[in-house]
Amino acid sequence: MPAYKTKAISIRNKPFAEADKLVTLFSRDHGKIRVLAKGARRIPSRFGGRVETFSYADYFLAKGRSLDIVSQCEVLESFQIVRDDPAGLKAGIYFLRLIDAATAEGQPNPELFDLLLTGLCRLKEKTDAPKVVVEFEKAFLRIEGIYREGFDPKYCISDHVGRDIREW
Question: Which residues share a beta bridge with 22?
Answer without folding.
Answer: 14, 36
